[in-house]
Amino acid sequence: MNTLQILILAAVQGIAELLPVSSSAHVIVAEKLMGLDPTAPQMTLLLVMLHTGTMFAVIVNFWKSWRETYFSSAQQFTSNGARLMVATAATGVVGLALMQGIKHFVAANASKFEIEQLFGNAHLMAAALAAAGILIIISARIAASGLNNVSMRSALWIGAVQGLCLPFRGFSRSGATISTGLALGVERRRAEQFSFALAVILTPVVIAKEGYRLYTVEHAAGAAGAHDLLHSLAPGLLGMVLSFLTGLFALRWLSRWLEQGRWYLFGLYCLIAALIVVWVG
After folding, report:
1. What pTM value is reported for the model?
2. Are 40 and 58 in contact, with CB atoms under 8 Å apart?
3. C-alpha 171 chain-centroid distance
4. d(CA 52, CA 58)
5. Tell me: the pLDDT tens digits for 245-257?
6. Distant-in-sequence, close-in-space partners of 215: CB < 8 Å, separation ≥ 6
7. What is the CA 167 to chain-centroid distance, rounded?
8. Which residues are paired to 147 by β-bridges?
9. 25-46, pLDDT tens digit by residue?
10. 39 burial level (CB within 10 Å; 0-12, 13-18, 19+)
11. Angle at Cα 202 formed by Cα 8 and Cα 172, nearest 5°?
12. Number of Cα atoms under 13 Å in the Cβ half of residue 117
């Protein structure tokens, strides 16, 4: 994996991770087109670093608005914190139950089965992209009632839908959670803020999971594997910076289209992307 390939993946990850178009689907397709192995330890290390870059982009972009809302008083902090906890708990329950169900019915409870083994399935990825696209388009057509905040009930539903996104690459997390908020009548800006607050909670868990997978592979490879990873560290840092910058650009793009009533265009893009994924295979 050369520096140009890392920069391409960083740009794809930074933009697609924060737009409602599924970064994983785009990254996997980009890897296939460049002939890269998504299961290689160097790729796992790069993915961890790129996720870190986009997480910092979310924090920088939303910090001012979160400070004015979530941290404006002790009451607001407690109230919003409780909703985020409920949503995160719902994500964990639904996501873990779904992954265990997939392991039971698809892999017959094979001990070595990992959900990542499904990520290369083009038809499954295309179906998830299409589902996300339809959800985005439907939510865009539902008139928001202008609720000022996310209710506990809305938080529960948003978290549950986020749980559905965990096993399926192509089912955009941001697209699904924001669309669920809009469908429940949450005001657009509030739905966006809540969705990405959930992302900041979820991303460290994803990074830790990928880091553990990287550790197990590196441990099995021994000194040679550790040397290869150290060799990939510097280009990975460059990729992390680029994913941070492109992430900021993507967030401003998303906010602008959401406020201007162009949310449905992301849904149309997901439908087109689903066809492309099937074609690329």
Report:
1. 0.87
2. no
3. 9
4. 10
5. 999 999 999 999 9
6. none
7. 11
8. 186
9. 788 778 878 888 766 667 777 7
10. middle
11. 55
12. 10
Reported as type and span, the H/E element at residue 11 is helix 3-18
**Placement of tokens 């739905």 in the chain:** 191
Instruction: In whole angstroms, give the CA distance from residue 230 to residue 92.
Output: 33
Joined together, the tokens standing for residue 18 give: 């924060």
Asked if residue 232 has pLDDT above 70, the reply is no
The dihedral region occupied by 108, where left means phi > 0, alpha psi between -120 and 50, and beta the remainder, is left
Q: Which two tokens stand for residue 191?
A: 């739905």
Q: What six digits make up the tokens of 74?
A: 């002790």
User: Distance between CA 274 and CA 117 in Å, rounded?
Assistant: 19
The residues near 237 (Cβ < 8 Å, ≥ 6 apart) are 49
CA distances from 129 to 172, 222, 278 (A): 7, 38, 11
CB–CB of 67/133 below 8 Å? no
253 and 19 Cβ atoms separated by less than 8 Å: yes
Query: Is residue 197 within 8 Å of 62, Cβ to Cβ?
Result: yes
156, 130, 126, 46 alpha-carbon torsion, rounded to 10°:
-50
Q: What is the rounded CA–CA span in Å between residue 106 and residue 174?
A: 27
Nearest to 192 by CA among 236, 252, 145: 252
Query: How far is 46 from 233, CA to CA, in rounded Å?
Result: 8
Going by the DSSP 8-state scheme, the letter that residue 148 receives in this structure is S
Query: 119 versus 20: which is more confidently predicted?
Result: 20
Annotated domain spans of the chain: 3-108+122-280
